[in-house]
From TrEMBL:
Coiled-coil spans in chain: none
Principal localisation: membrane
Gene it is expressed from: Tspo_1
Membrane topology, as annotated: Multi-pass membrane protein
Record-level GO cellular component terms: mitochondrial outer membrane
CDD domains: TSPO_MBR
Membrane-crossing residue ranges in chain numbering: 6-26, 47-66, 78-95, 107-129, 135-155
Taxonomic lineage of the native organism: Eukaryota, Metazoa, Chordata, Craniata, Vertebrata
Designated name of the protein: TSPO protein
Pfam families: TspO_MBR
Keywords: Membrane, Transmembrane, Transmembrane helix
Length: 167
């Protein structure tokens, strides 16, 4: 029982690790570069992002724990559902350094489009395993939709920024 608690906490915290590292690495680029980009009127305030990602990462992490538990751990039948989840998590973590540090809007757009597909694939693979886990990803998918639209708009509206930052 105590061990399952540790797994629950571990899976729930895991997405936050990459999110925190992404914030830490890119925190100086936000006021210097991001604030100067042309953004649509519906772009969320900078203050919304940490709260949103805390909620989303917590839901994602707990959902991955439910899938892991229902599939009996890291067995072969967990390879695809947890592999898709892990792949989308890696792309999720890769987006901030690509966007903020490299300032590569085109690659960030490609990353988030692939991320969208992997997140949808994750949800589809989880649906038959655990519907609650799948539902926990719905807010994440909604936020990704907004983030994808925002990335597209920033890419289109800032043509001088479309390629990686010059040295």
């Amino acid at each position: 029982q105590g061990r399952m608690w540790a797994y629950t906490v571990g899976f729930t915290i895991l997405p936050h690790v990459g999110g925190f590292l992404g914030w830490f690495i890119n925190r100086k680029e936000i006021p210097v570069w991001y604030e100067k980009l042309k953004k649509p009127s519906w772009c969320p305030s900078r203050k919304v992002f940490p709260l949103a990602w805390t909620v989303l990462y917590t839901g994602m992490g707990y959902a991955s724990y439910l899938i892991w538990k229902d599939l009996g751990g890291c067995r072969s039948k967990a390879l695809v559902p947890l592999g898709l989840y892990g792949a989308q998590l890696v792309l999720n973590w890769a987006w901030p350094p690509i966007f903020f540090s490299a300032r590569n809007l085109k690659l960030a757009l490609l990353d988030i489009l692939c991320l969208d597909m992997l997140a949808i694939g994750t949800m589809c693979s989880w649906y038959r395993i655990n519907k609650v886990a799948t539902l926990l990803l719905v807010p994440y998918l909604g936020w990704l939709g907004m983030a994808t639209c925002l990335t597209i708009r920033i890419w289109k509206d800032n043509p001088e920024q479309k390629s990686a930052k010059s040295e």
